[in-house]
Amino acid sequence: MSTQAELTRRGRHLVLAVCCTSVFLSNLNNTVLNVALPAMQRDLGSPLSGLQWTIDAYLIVLAALLMLAGSAGDRLGRRRVFRTGLALFTLGSLLCGLAPGLGWLIAFRTVQAAGASMLNPVAMSILTNTFTGPRERARAIGVWGAVMGVSMAVGPMVGGVLVQGLGWRSIFWLNLPIGLAAFVCAARFVPESRAPRPRRMDPVGQAMVTVLLGCLTYAIIEGPGTGWTAPRTLACALAAPAALLALVRYERRRTEPLVDLRVFRSAGFSGASVTAVCSFFVLGGFLFLNTLYLQNVRGLSAMTAGLYLLPMAVMNIVTSPLSGRLTATRGPRLPLLLAGAATTAGGALLATGGALTTDTLLFTAYVLIGVGVGLANTPVTDAAMSGLPREQAGVAAAIVATSRQFGQALGVAVLGAVLTANLHRSGTPFTRAVLPGYWIVTGCGLAMVVLTLATTRRTAPAAGAAAPARQPSAPEVAEVAKMPEPRA
């Protein structure tokens, strides 16, 4: 319950502004980094795997801590946890800007991620407790989703301008004034609230999730460089499935698990979760490969590379609201099929090599990838929620949000590993070494189509059906504020 009296209209809008600032920071932070990778590589003498870790260290920690952060906000106070997240994120940004070497930069990225994990799920919880009317809440979540989409889309362009003018460290300095202002405003305008009955903490389950995600990513990134039979790589490759099996056995016995495995009994939810992984796998891997191609192969400046990616950004922004309307009127099936088809076509254009030689085909591929990513967001959340009872919505949606973050990390890890392995072959140019990665992107698009056909209904639910309300969504919209208390 809120510790303050009901907020005025102006007060609620100030709360919305503070929460939107947090989603802008955390989402911009990762996409803005991609354009800076070549400059960081030159300045820090980083191998390709080091560039992968600067992105994936953030994404893996963020994915692993999302559900824990939501529970902590409900238990300890949402404003308190939110402000702690802002402080950690801003401190991590300062440290990243001062990092003397690659190892320090990767370590400080995990500090950033720990802070970011407390922002989006807790901010969504604050919004749902501030905007209690259904229409007001829908509008607030719509604004939230729009800010999220814009921050992800404009990241490469903003990064290009900053890197070109001030150097790669400036992408971290940008977070400092915004983070400090949000921290101060949160103390002044955001009311404190807690869940009446917060879920129990699950440190054992949390540790297993962290081991699973971290070890799997390590094995994929380091395998091509150190060898798949190297002791550390092999140990991580074995630890990941072991952690998964242990997690399944342990969580089944808990009455309030960190990961409620019952939601995977729904074909719609399971299909939507895998589709989320595929969609964000494409986003993360595509941005990683194309940034290196545009700057290291074509020799473009950081700013020009950001402008080259503008068609993708524009289509992402344009198709996101269209996807919401299609989902509301036709259900998730149609927009997901269109998203999968566009992703498949864009990946195929890049994989055949023609798009790497002519700007017309390259921009066409960028447009198709942008359409695929933009159309997928809302219906993925809708499809996940449609097959589940409302009391499971919070935990299920948090799992889908984690799937998105992990998918993005997996895209960088897998496509970067494929590129590294191919470049190690003597005389293989980048433009040939990158093609298998784009075939994987094409396969992800086809997988989205197959999963959609297999797990979604042909028509939208009738008005007034028991399915959850259709609201504009973003990855964090699904990180529904209050984590419900599942019972065995």
Give the helix proportion (percent range): over 70%
Instruction: List the helices and strands in order.
Output: HHHHHHHHHHHHHHHHHHH
Rg computed from alpha carbons, rounded to a whole number of angstroms = 21 Å
First-residue to last-residue Cα separation: 26 Å
Largest sheet: number of strands, sense, barrel closure: none
Please tally the β strands and state the result: 0
Mean pLDDT: 81
Give the CATH topology of the largest domain. Growth Hormone, Chain: A
Give the percentage of residues in beta strands.
Answer: under 5%
Counting DSSP H or I runs of 4 or more residues, the number of helices is 19
**Stretches with pLDDT under 50, minimum 5 residues:** 1-5, 461-488
- CATH level-four homologous superfamily name of the largest domain: MFS general substrate transporter like domains
The CATH class of the largest domain turns out to be: Mainly Alpha
Total individual domains:
2
Structural write-up:
This protein folds into two domains: 9-202 and 254-455, MFS general substrate transporter like domains (Growth Hormone, Chain: A); 203-253. 76% of the residues lie in helices and 0% in strands. The protein has 19 helices and no strands. The protein has helices at residues 9-34, 37-44, 48-76, 78-98, 102-117, 120-130, 134-166, 170-173, 175-189, 203-226, 231-252, 267-297, 302-308, 310-330, 333-351, 359-386, 393-423, 430-433, 435-455.
